[in-house]
């Protein structure tokens, strides 16, 4: 195998996410989720209106990390399975679900092997939370995996960081927002060396290197349609679930963050829904 970051992206990114777990266990508000049986993660609370009634549905949460959103979906009545490639994250997710009294199955697998790990045609809903697609090199292959997991008539729900957000450069002293990184999917992806995770913590990552991949809106929508799904909803948002702009963003009452200066300039996240043909 080649030693290029593109070929070794799973190894590099898994090490990075493994190093995030102990930091996230202290920085995420896990005690609230453990102690309040009605508590939801901010991500799922934002998604709830668009998700609708999911009680009784078989749902898989892809790239579930430590399971805060997975637990929250279970609290909305879904029968949940979570999938992730980080063993430490899954260990934490299992502990969180057990401490909250929820029976959730967690499976270790990379995304592209999900069909083999979980079985095809099992799920009514495939859920992917914000900040997932940027870790995957091939959005068309991702869409085919999603379609393979869904039953006929099943639904994809994804809220994701907007490709415009992922293409932004570092903040400039003059406040100008610049496009620096690829908007479209590239063969190599982009390698970053970032010592900090996205939560508020002074702890540095022990594995700071990542390989990330952007996917343009047209590429995502085309991938979904070519995989045999019908687009039913697409909405862009000017807020996101973490602070991507430091002191240039304000935290809203719902835990989302919005650019202070003319937020209407910038699409930050989007929600996409699609259904698989019967």
Descriptive notes:
- With 278 residues, this protein is an alpha/beta fold.
- The chain has one domain: Vaccinia Virus protein VP39 (Rossmann fold, 3-Layer(aba) Sandwich).
- It is built from 9 helices and 12 strands.
- The longest helix has 19 residues.
- The model has no long low-confidence stretch (mean pLDDT 94).
N-to-C SSE series?
Answer: HHHEHEHEHEHEHEEHEEEEE
Major sheet characteristics:
7 strands, mixed
Terminal Cα span: 40 Å
Radius of gyration: 18 Å
Contiguous uncertain segments of 5+ residues: none
Q: Top keywords for this entry?
A:
278 residues; Rossmann fold; 7-stranded mixed β-sheet; single chain; 3-stranded antiparallel β-sheet; alpha/beta
Provide a compact summary of the structure:
The protein contains nine helices and twelve strands. By secondary structure, it is of the alpha/beta class. It has a single domain (9-276), classed as 3-Layer(aba) Sandwich (Rossmann fold).
Reconstruct the topology from this structure:
Elements: H1 9-27, H2 30-35, H3 42-51, E1 58-62, H4 68-75, E2 79-84, H5 87-99, E3 105-108, H6 114-118, E4 123-128, H7 139-149, E5 150-161, H8 163-166, E6 190-193, E7 209-212, H9 217-226, E8 229-237, E9 239-240, E10 249-251, E11 257-259, E12 269-276
Parallel strand pairs: 1-2, 1-4, 2-3, 4-5
Antiparallel strand pairs: 5-12, 6-7, 8-12, 9-11, 10-11
């Amino acid at each position: 195998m080649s030693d290029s970051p593109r070929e070794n992206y799973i190894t590099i990114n898994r090490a990075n996410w493994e190093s995030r777990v102990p930091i996230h266990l202290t920085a995420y508000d896990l005690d609230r989720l453990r102690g309040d049986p009605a508590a939801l993660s901010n991500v799922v609370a934002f998604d709830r209106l668009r998700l609708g009634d999911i009680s009784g549905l078989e749902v898989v949460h892809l790239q579930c990390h430590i399971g805060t959103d997975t637990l929250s979906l279970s609290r909305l009545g879904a029968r949940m399975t979570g999938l992730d490639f980080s063993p430490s994250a899954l260990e934490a997710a299992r502990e969180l679900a057990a401490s909250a009294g929820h029976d959730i199955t967690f499976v270790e697998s990379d995304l592209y092997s999900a069909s083999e790990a979980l079985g095809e045609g099992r799920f009514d809903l495939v859920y992917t939370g914000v900040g997932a697609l940027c870790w995957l090199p091939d959005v068309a292959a991702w869409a085919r995996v999603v379609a393979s997991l869904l039953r006929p008539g099943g639904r994809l729900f994804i809220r994701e960081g907007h490709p415009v957000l992922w293409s932004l450069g570092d903040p400039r002293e003059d406040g100008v927002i610049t496009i620096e990184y690829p908007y479209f999917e590239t063969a190599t992806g982009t390698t970053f060396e970032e010592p900090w995770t996205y939560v508020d913590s002074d702890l540095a990552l022990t594995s700071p290197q990542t390989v990330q991949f952007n996917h343009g809106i047209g590429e995502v929508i085309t991938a979904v349609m070519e995989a045999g799904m019908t687009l039913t909803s697409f909405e862009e948002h000017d807020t996101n679930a973490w602070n991507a702009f430091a002191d240039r963003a304000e935290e809203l009452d719902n835990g989302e963050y919005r650019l202070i200066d003319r937020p209407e300039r910038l699409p930050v996240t989007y929600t996409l829904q699609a259904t698989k043909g019967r």
